[in-house]
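Quiz preparation item.
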């Protein structure tokens, strides 16, 4: 069923409802400018978008907000803030300033969440605990700005292969433990199936995250991994993840937001965007059942 341009009842249903619908993350069609991606979503009846800050900056913040609103699209997330783990005090201060700017951008865009990729190991250090403490300290400094502007921060766990350079939080439980230190309206977690599917404790952690799931992202784990492992994501159903099972767990935990398809894959980027959008929509409909 559709109402006001949004798809209702999409996704596995749980206690009282299901996913709000499909969102296309800009990373999936990264070669498109923001206005082109907006047009793509309209042509394929995709009701929401996950935006990236570089694309927003390229189009202009005010113009981007006007373009999305004028098209009647919802902003399911803004990617990304984070990268807090700097050894140099000036670099840490600059990172915090950039994150405060990101919060302001998320507020202007009306995004459901500002996704945080928290940063890898501190340069010159092998102290994993130090890096995680720096993330917690930076988040504590950022929360007052988020609360003032009414923006929810989404702490995202990344697959362990990215621990050294991108994110020292590898399990959903790591992200949740951090988020639970702050008010739920200010800090939640991003459940990215691509990054957390391997965790034997995932089902329990998703259940524990009830009331804290700020965003839900989907892509499949394909093999063989490319030389740049960042690009090892595939269309839903092309890989090894039980996406239907994870979706059911997320819905059962009370999540009622959009399911965002976020795919990093060079072949998909090189494909015609309309073909990509059609495949994204078809595969999500199959997943939603």
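Solution:
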């Amino acid at each position: 069923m559709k109402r006001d341009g949004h798809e209702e009842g999409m996704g596995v249903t749980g206690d009282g409802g299901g996913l709000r619908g499909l969102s296309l993350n800009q990373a999936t069609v990264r070669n498109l400018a923001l206005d082109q991606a907006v047009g793509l979503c309209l042509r394929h009846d995709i009701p929401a978008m996950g935006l990236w800050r570089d694309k927003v900056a390229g189009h202009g913040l005010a113009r981007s907000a006007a373009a999305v609103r004028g098209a009647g699209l919802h902003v399911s997330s803004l990617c990304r803030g984070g990268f807090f783990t700097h050894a140099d005090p000036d670099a840490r201060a600059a990172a915090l300033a950039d994150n405060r700017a990101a919060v302001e951008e998320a507020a202007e865009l009306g995004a459901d969440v500002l996704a945080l990729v928290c940063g890898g190991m501190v340069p010159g250090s092998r102290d994993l605990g130090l890096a995680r403490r720096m993330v917690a300290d930076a988040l504590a400094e950022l929360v007052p700005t988020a609360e003032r502007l009414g923006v929810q921060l989404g702490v995202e766990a990344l697959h362990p292969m990215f621990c050294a350079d991108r994110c020292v939080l590898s399990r959903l439980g790591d992200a949740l433990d951090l988020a639970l230190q702050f008010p739920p309206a200010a800090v939640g977690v991003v459940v990215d199936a691509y990054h957390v599917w391997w965790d034997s404790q995932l089902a329990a952690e998703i259940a524990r995250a009830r009331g804290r799931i700020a965003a839900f992202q989907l892509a499949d784990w394909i093999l063989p991994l490319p030389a740049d492992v960042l690009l090892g994501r595939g269309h839903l159903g092309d890989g090894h993840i039980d996406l239907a099972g994870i979706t059911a767990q997320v819905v059962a935990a009370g999540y009622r937001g959009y399911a965002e398809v976020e795919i990093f894959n060079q072949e998909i980027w090189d494909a015609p965007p309309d073909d990509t959008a059609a495949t994204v929509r078809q595969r999500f409909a199959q997943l939603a059942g």
